[in-house]
Amino acid sequence: MSSPGGPWGSDPNGQQHAPLAGQPMGSPQQPGGQYQGFGQPQQPQYQQAQYPQPQFQQAQYQQPQYPGMVSGFPTPPKKSRGPVIAAIVLGVVVVIAIVTTIVVLVPGGSDEAAPQPTAKPTTSQSTPTAQPTAANPDLPPVVPGWQVVRAPRKTALYDVPMEWELDPDPDGLHAYGPPEDPVTLRGVADYQAGFCPGDSNSYRATSGVSARYGPDDTTVATQTLAKFIELAHTRDGVAPVVETGAPEQIQLPGNIPAVRVTARVTLPAPGQCDSASVLASVVATNNDGQSSVVLIAAADQEVEGAFTGDQLNQLTGSFRAE
Fold first, then answer.
1. What are residue 72's phi and psi, to 5 degrees?
2. What residues contact residue 76 under an 8 Å CB cut-off, 6+ apart?
3. Is the CB of residue 191 less than 8 Å from the CB of residue 307?
4. What is the DSSP letter of 213?
5. Cα dist. 140→148, 158, 177, 224, 306 in Å?
6. What pLDDT shows up at residue 79?
7. Rounded to 5°, angle at Cα 171 from 12 and 197
8. HSE-up of 28 (CA within 13 Å, CB side)?
9. Tens-digit pLDDT profile for residues 267-298
10. Average pLDDT, the chain
């Protein structure tokens, strides 16, 4: 599939948009603004006034220089090589005399060559294929063999397979839809990123963390999934066909209750980089009566190396607090 929006951080007027509703924030947020994630919001941080400190010039002392000094340490005097050369010449003469005596004492020594050591056959070894490196090796995954994705602003973690590519900036903002009403994601990871020639925003699967308004987790999960599918999978004004499953009550790591909603999406007019069939899933949790923190994931189906529905459940089921 191809991301129709792509990552962005501000609109043409330079205004940042709130991750929850996409409303312009104007000036930077003041302490005590809206927060939705795992745990408690951080307390406002106040900057202590800074006063110039008196500067003192440290006295400079000239390092005394001595003959033969290199980096402060004296160079040892060179030793004469005459005695060493004489010892080497004497040793060579002694060795020649010993070899000559051995040849004379061994009968037929001039006709029989000494056995030569047999060279060991060399074997060619193929270089092993380099294995992907975990993006956050200090954080243990809950899915064995996978790697951990961080979404620091939401104090959230989740796992993806090792071959997935993580955004180098875990707080990098990715969005679907117009700035006035987008679905935004942070802590984004992609599978087979850039697989479609000429489209750097293409991928076979993607995931990311956000937060959405709603009175409870079920409402947030259902509405967020519908909004994401509408914005990410409408092609040339043609809306996709969506079969949405019933909401599931699940337990996330740490015994955190959550709601997961999954849908199968069919594109009537898929583009060059699109699969005709996509699975999309949203997990919502930690609702405070106004909004929930959510994990969104989607994967192309019926393509080579497709990320399966069971794997999608493993990914979304690994959503947890950092």
1. 90, -10
2. none
3. yes
4. E
5. 7, 10, 34, 29, 25
6. 41
7. 70
8. 1
9. 999 998 999 999 999 999 999 999 999 999 99
10. 74
Tokens of 220: 């947030």
HEC-encoded secondary structure of 257-306: EEEEEEEEEECCCCCCCCCCEEEEEEEEECCCCCEEEEEEEEEEECCCCC
Length of the chain in terms of residues written: 322
Q: Categorize the per-residue pLDDT at 205 as very low, low, confident or very high, splitting at 50, 70 and 90.
A: very high
312-322, pLDDT tens digit by residue? 999 999 999 99
- Exposure string of 158-189, with b = 16+ CB inside 10 Å and e = fewer, is bbbbeebbbbeebebbbbbbebeebbbbbbbb
CA distance 99 to 55: 78
